[in-house]
Amino acid sequence: MNFRGPLRRFGLALSASLFCAGIASAQDWPAKPIRLVVNFAPGGAADVIARAIAPQLAQALKQPIVVDNKPGAGGNIGGAEVAKSPNDGYTLLLSSGGAITINPLIYTKMSFDPEKDLTPVASVARVLVYLETNPRVPAGNVQEFIAYLKANPGKLSFGSPGHGSSPHLAGELFKRMAKVDATHVPYKGAGPALTDLLGGQLDFWFDPGPGLKHVKEGRLKLLAVGSAKRSRQLPNVPTLSESGLPGFDADTLFGVYAPAGTPAEIVGRVHDEINKALQQGTVVAAIEGLGAEPAAMRREEFIAQHDKERERFGALVKAIGLKLE
């Protein structure tokens, strides 16, 4: 008896039913709370941004948004958890751009491929980095700081949220361009690094924003912004490019990602709601409070930015021979 015809018809019917079920599930989404994984520790830029947009998304989607910090390995732990989650729209990732674009250039062993296993959903903020020192460092501007570093080669240390993060790469770029030596100390997020800078265990860092409030309180010294142009929130603070390091630019995009294969309808809905959230005063205030800038854009633009970041930072990674397991 020939079963080929009936089996083929059964297979087609099954495929059609699964396709229709996928459409139905996308239309019914969301029907339960959504987990927003942050792949860095509490207190850092990613965490602050996530907790600012979560209430707005919750209100728009009519479901709770649970922010879940999963720090470690430069963002790889949280990234892997989302990449391996069901692609049903109930697990999302808020990450720095560096953890997505630069980590594959640095880590020789990764349990996931960000480019293949994650789908870019929406850009959220352009995070600038600010060169800040502990007050005990005897320098009032960039040139004095460079002179102090040259007089004390290898004696000063700087922290970062982790290997390959934009603050780390900013520090390495600074060392190369200023021709100075300092020791990098990686942390599992900006929050712990900031704590040690305030406590005097570190001498300086490139702040992705959380340290600015301590600058206002006089607990840290702000010397420059490490971006191509001055910060809109701090227009009187010079760039490193203006301070003798022409072309210095180490800012990066932070954004939201979903597991690959997440239905396009869900991705589009989250993208649109995030762009709306970025127009709300509380969200804008939280992002600008980090010295960052809201960065709503089309998905096509956001995706294109990944290639630009790989090119911009990839050359630096190769030049300094940064490789980790």
Describe this protein's structure.
This protein starts with a helix and ends in a 5-residue tail after the last helix. The chain has helices at residues 4-28, 45-61, 76-83, 97-101, 103-106, 114-117, 142-151, 166-178, 190-199, 212-216, 264-277, 281-289, 299-320, and strands spanning 34-38, 65-69, 91-96, 118-127, 130-133, 157-160, 183-186, 204-207, 221-225, 252-259, 293-294. The mean pLDDT is 92. It folds into 2 domains: 31-126 and 252-320, Bordetella uptake gene, domain 1 (D-Maltodextrin-Binding Protein, domain 2, 3-Layer(aba) Sandwich); 130-225, Periplasmic binding protein-like II (D-Maltodextrin-Binding Protein, domain 2). It is of the alpha/beta class. The chain is globular. The chain contains 13 helices and 11 strands. Helix 2 packs across helix 11 (264-277) and helix 2 (45-61) runs antiparallel to helix 12 (281-289).
